Amino acid sequence: MTSAPMTDDQSAAAKVSARDLFLGFLTVGVQGFGGVLPWARRMIVEERHWLSEVEFTDLLSLCQLLPGPNIVNLSIALGNRFAGPLGSLAAVTGLLAAPFAIVLALGMLYAAYGNSAALGGVFRNLGAAAAGLVLATAWKVAKPYIKRPEAIVVAAIAFVAVVGFGWPLVYVVLALAPISIAWVWRLAR
Amino acid sequence: MKPDVLGTLIRHFVLLSLVAIGGANAVVPEMHRVAVELEHWMTDRQFAELFALANAAPGPNVLMVSLIGFQAAGFMGAVAATVAMCAPSCVLTYFAVRRWERSRNERVKRIVQRGLAPVTIGLVAASAYLLTRAAIHDWLGAVLTAGTFALMAMTKYNPLWIFGLATALGLVGIS
């Protein structure tokens, strides 16, 4: 043990205002093609250093357990941590404002013109790029845990349950979370 | 405006909000049942196309509910559906997280989070696999996926560049 055993878990205790939260999540919302998780992680961990890699995964895991979109929950949690209720409100508003306007504009275009062939091609290409983004995020989220066999086993079971057996996410989380927590608890004793 | 439709939208999505553990994608089948089979707001094909639209647009996939609301009752429908889907889970999360962070039992918190993290990793990996399998039909898809992965995993460049390229290629008919 070193003199500061928790350093890898703690980011620089940044002073983040409600305004920072709004603007930060606004960029996430605007950029968030093909799912917001990769962009949120990039902004929070890599660009602004609001959380460390491990802190990000911890907070995301907590949000995963609560109902609602994970990233919306994450914006609420992070907003509250840095700036209280106003921070939560600022973060979630920033996250949703621009995408709401964009998706409505697209919805109107769709209602007016339907799905043209060119748009189909654009969607296909964007889907392929988005897949790469989520692959990279999976790699980055897994990296800090790669030397912990129990974490790899649990992650592998969750993966197979969803991909191999097509189980709904809810059941996978509800079934696996208590087992995994109990395992970590035993190891920590 | 049709107040009865707005009321129906709010009623359905408030309920969905509180059961959507794992996010909006967990309740897509239920959204389909409500929007297509129960309320007849749209056809099966429209649902699939709006779902693709919500996924391709920037922002959380939960905005699928904005499109359903828009289809059912115009702009006010979109607002009503979005607020109904987001507000209950947000309030719940807010109080749950506050309680969690105020708790002083650092050891228990640490163990719970260390236990939950691997589940999250498995789920992110699973969605990465499923998205990749759905996205790669030909060599161009494979190149775009691999290129974005490499850019994001190994460099500090903003992957938005690849999305711009993907859009441009699609618009000139290469897809």
From TrEMBL, chain B:
Its main location: membrane. It comes from Aliidongia dinghuensis. This is Chromate transporter. Pfam families: Chromate_transp (PF02417). One of its GO terms (cellular component) is plasma membrane. The chain crosses the membrane at residues 68-95, 116-136, 156-174. It is a multi-pass membrane protein. GO terms for molecular function: chromate transmembrane transporter activity. Keywords: Cell membrane, Membrane, Transmembrane, Transmembrane helix.
